[in-house]
Amino acid sequence: MGEIPDIEPGEAYRRLQSDAVAQLIDVRTPAEWTFAGHPDLGALGKSAVLAQWSSYPDNAVDTQFADRLSRALSDAGLGKETPLFFLCRSGVRSLAAANAMAAEGFTNCHNVADGFDGPLNEQRQRGHIAGWRASGLPWMQG
Fold it and tell me: Which of 121, 120, 115 shows the shortest CA–CA distance to 7?
């Protein structure tokens, strides 16, 4: 198992656009998907796979994450070579999730750099200097 590469949000979107089977896996919590928003891949004829990596507020990792996601991908007819782009709030949980899937034999895993919201700015706010939203990529609330 090699190191999981970071990929810039814009490049991830271009790859999702150009590869019919490529998948975006959003590993945040349901509250984050609802209240912070989530990537909108409707223009690509796709939607992100929502697969929670850890729970809130205890941050307990779902020990069945890799099994559940592997099964869902297999049920969708996708193989272990499918390009998978993992996204969380800032890029930490998504990297752990990508590593878990690589350990299951998925050979084309990528971590979306800076996640959906990116790092904190000087005012300690996310969503302004990097990440999916700050890159101007499509997203929706709710």
Answer: 115
User: Which residues sit opposite 50 in a β-bridge?
Assistant: 26
| Per-residue pLDDT at 142 | 76
The beta strands (E) that lie in 40-126 are given as: 49-50, 84-87, 109-112
Using a 10 angstrom Cβ sphere, with 0-12 exposed, 13-18 middle and 19 or more buried, the burial of residue 29 is: buried
Q: Which two tokens stand for residue 126?
A: 């996310």
**Which residues lie below 8 Å from residue 141, measured CB to CB, with a gap of 6+?**
35, 37
Find out whether 16 and 22 touch, Cβ atoms under 8 Å.
yes
Tokens for 22? 């490529």
Rounded to the nearest 5 percent, the helix, strand and coil shares of the chain are 35, 15, 50
pLDDT at 2 (0 to 100): 64
CA gap 87, 116 in Å, rounded: 7
Nearest to 134 by CA among 4, 36, 9: 9
- Residue ranges of the chain whose pLDDT lies below 70: 1-2
Residue with tokens 């084309």: 108
